[in-house]
Each structure stands twice: as C-alpha cells, then as structure tokens.
Amino acid sequence: GSRRMFCNDWTPLTAATVAGATATVELLLAARADANVVCCTSTSSGLYKSWTALDCARTGDIVPFERDHAKHKQPRHAAIEQLLLAAGAQPSSALPEPRAVNTYGLVPEAGQRPNPCLDDTGMPLRPAHLYD
23 Cβ partners below 8 Å, 6+ apart? Predict the structure, then answer.
C-alpha cells in the first residue's frame, strides 16, 4: 500500500509548549521568541494544516486538531496559555497562512518555500526507517 508522510514545522517555543515546559516557555518569551510563528504540516500534496504555540497550549496536542471529537480529553497547558496570551500570542486562525509549498513533482516557484516532504527535484523523500 501507499504511505503518506507528514512533515511538521517546529520552533523551540512550540516544542516547549507541547512539552508543558513552563520555565522554558518563560525563558524563550523573555528572550523575545515570536509567539505568533505559524507552523504547518505538509504532505507531498502541499500544506495540510497550521498551528501556533497558543494552539498547542490550548489543545495540549503535538499537532493541534480543533475538530477532534475528544478535544476535551486532551491535556491543556493553561499556565503556558496565559504566558503566551500576555506576550500577544494569537491562534493560527487569526494569522496569515504560511507561504505555499511546492507539490509532488514540482520544484518551488517564486514565492513558495520548499516542501519538507520533497527532495530538490520535487519527488517524495523516502526515509530509510519508513521504507526498509
């Protein structure tokens, strides 16, 4: 069967938020980390979904999924959410979407960023640990 690989953007702030590392989030915000970086998940077909550190704090999920029927069961990081809000953080839905990425078989065009799931020729990456 076919396999779909998802490639995720991360910043130190989103990673610390997901980990629930309040002290690290405080340190990063004190060092002026941008709380409004929009991270995204890509597939070889293009952008899949996007999120910010605030979205991660509100859902407690690695890749926040607002429509998750079990969202109420996800751990939340309320203290981190308050830190982020005090720093002016917004959810991804209130911010511009990330720049488009190239899709399967195509190289990036002007204004696009390279798709992390594709190689320099636009073909899907085949990590050895997934395709042994």
Answer: none
Coil/strand/helix, residue 101: strand
Closest C-alpha to 124, from 103, 110, 108? 103
- Kindly give the confidence (pLDDT) of every residue in the chain, 132 residues in length, as a single tens digit, with 9 standing for 90 and above: 445 556 677 889 988 998 899 999 999 999 999 999 988 877 767 677 788 899 889 887 666 555 556 656 666 889 999 999 999 999 988 999 888 888 888 898 998 888 877 888 888 877 666 555
CA dihedral 46, 48, 51, 56 (to 10 degrees): -140
pTM for this predicted structure: 0.72
